[in-house]
Every structure is written in C-alpha cells, then in structure tokens.
Amino acid sequence: MKINPVFDDLENPETIISHVEQLQKDLEAEKENKGLFKVKTANQWLEQAKTTPIPEMLFGEFWHEGEISILFSDSNLGKSILSVQIADSISKGQPINGFRLEAKKQTVLYFDFELSPKQFEVRYSVKNEGLKVFENHYSFDDNFKRIEINPDAEIPTETTFENYLNQSLEQSIIETGAKILIIDNITYLKNETERSKDALPLMKYLKALKSKYGLSILALAHTPKRDLSRPITQNDLGGSKMLYNFIDSCFAIGQSNTDKNLRYIKQIKARNTAMIYDTENVIVCEIAKPYNFLAFEYLDYGAEWEHLKQLTEKDHESKISEALEFKKQGLSNVQIAKQFGVSEGAVRKWFKKGAENE
Fold it and tell me: Residues 161, 218, 233, 202: what is their CA dihedral angle, to the nearest 10 degrees?
C-alpha cells in the first residue's frame, strides 16, 4: 500500500529525510503566502536580503538600482536635458562629472513623449548657419534606446489608448531585456496624477513592472506653479501625495534667481542613502552646450536660499492685490493658493493683512 508517492523508496532513509524536509519547506511557503501578505520572521527576511546585491548608484545618491524615482521641476528648467544626460551616462558606463555611477554599462530605454526627432537633434548637434543644416551630431552608444509614440499605429478597438500604451511599454522591456527605464514624462502613462484615485493605479502598475522585470525607473513630472521665493518640498510634486508615498527616491531641479542659466539639484526623498543634498547643500549646475551636447555642468555646492527669489514689500503687496482680484472673480482660497503655488493658509494671511491695510 502506498502512503505517498514521495515515499516509494522506503529502503533509502536519506531519500525519505530529503522528501520530509521538502514537505516542511512547502508547508512553510504556504504559511508565508496568505492572501495579500507574506509572513516571515525578521531573521528570515534578513536571510532573503543577503541573497540580493546592494543597489548601486545610477545617478549619485539621487537614484539607485531597483528604485522608482521621480525627477520634477517647473516647465523649461531642463528635466529632459538632465535625464538624457543620465541615460547617456548609464548607456556608456561613464559617470557625469560631479555625480557617481556605480552600475555597469547597460541598455537604457528612454521613452520620449516630449520632443520630436528634430527637436532632439537640435540639442545634440551643431547648426551650420551658412548651409542651414545640423551637423557634427553627438555619438550616443547603441545601448541608448530612444522610444517615441508611432503616430501611424492603430489602437485595437477592444482596448484604450492608455492600456495599449502600457502593453507596448512592457513589450519593449521584454524585447530589449533592458533594466533601466526613463519616462519623459509620467502624465503620458496616466492623464491625471494629482488625485489619489488616479495616481494609485499608475504607481501600482510601475511597482508591478519593477518587481516583474527587476527594473530601475526614473519618471519625470511637472510641478504646478510655485512660489520661487520658497524652498522646494514634496508638496511641489503635483497635487497627489500618492506619488510621493509610493516612490523610493525623488529629486528636483530649481532655477537660480542669480543667473538664468544656473540650476540647482536637490534631494527630496531617499531610501537607499542619507539625505545629503538637502536645502543646506544643493548641487549647483549650469546648462551649457560647449559643442554638440546640451548638458548640466557641475559647478559647486551651495545653500538653496542663495538661489531663491528675494521678495520685496512691493512684491508682497502685489501678490495680495492679485489674490483679492481672484477672490472677486469667485475663486476659493484653495484655488487661489494653486495659482500662486502656496498653501491655503498663506492666502488667508494675505487677506488678513490686506484687510488690516484698508
């Protein structure tokens, strides 16, 4: 009589012991995976962690392997310029001056939903004014895969554009075997990210992709209009806290009020490293194109306040006057706050000060 097929070889004690041990492991695995949660002891988690490599830097302390990171700023401050520079660095295995690169040379998928091929060419070539052509183009490594939407593609009738975009993105990952994704910008994956109900599915999708294929993802995002006299904070990342809560790291580009070509880069969130580049220690760069490559050139370190706009009393009065006009038009305090990139509490203080001056 057979009690269990795994015990067929009863004459071999070692086989029986091996099968019993395997059954115990299977039972433990079943206990660990109950519904939504995986339950293990703290020591078991540490043992599992020992089998995975330490995440290496992709762009200094700002972005590590295995992270979903967001780079954000106001429009026209150079997010795309910096992200192409990061992609070029990783694809060639060469660090950007002033920033560490620990990861090996590898394929990068750069999803460009912003620039046309001609606009891209302008940044990475030299214009011959006499012949009215671009020449001496920068030589990217073949590891740099730039991807844009095919305008002639037909979307299947049984799906939405958004779903088809996500399916195509995943297909690109499968076909190239790439582990590094840069998405310029995140709103093309989800039209609305300011509300939690819209941002949550997007972040779940990105985290699922990361886990399934072992990815490192950098997504670019715009900020609403902000007060340039205030330091950049997590509150400037769109209107949804959901994006911030789900990501592993986050950094931002600020414009210097001292020179229109100067930018500063600031850490907003980090999990794999300490917050080194905070408001007291930002990295100051200049946007320059000495030949055929538009790029951020490292200059120095500095304090964020050195680059913020200094408001005069006249500036304050002008803001209060403008806010009062919005109020007369029927806008709420929250809506007015969004117009100026400040908190609703700040708007209330303006109105209080305006009433006192009447």
Answer: 30
Q: Does 343 have pLDDT greater than 80?
A: no
Find the range with the poorest average confidence among 129-138, 245-254, 320-329: 320-329
Q: Judge: domain 313-357, CATH 1.10.10.
A: yes
Residues 6+ apart with CB under 8 A from 333: 344, 347, 348, 351
Residue pair 186/81 in contact by the 8 Å Cβ criterion: no
Q: Where are the domains of the chain?
A: 5-50, 57-307, 313-357
> Does residue 345 register a pLDDT over 50?
yes
Is the pLDDT confidence value at 77 over 70? yes
Look at phi and psi of residue 93 and say left if phi exceeds 0, alpha if psi is from -120 to 50, else beta.
left
Contacts of 284 (CB under 8 A, 6+ apart): 256, 262, 263, 264, 298, 299, 300, 301, 302, 307
Instruction: Tell me what the mean pLDDT of segment 36-45 comes to.
Output: 86
Q: Is the pLDDT of residue 358 over 80?
A: no
What pTM was estimated for this model as a whole? 0.79
| 57-307 under CATH 3.40.50.300, yes or no | yes
For residue 197, give Cα distances in angstroms to 42, 202, 338. 33, 9, 20
> Cis omega (within 30 of 0) on the bond before 185?
yes
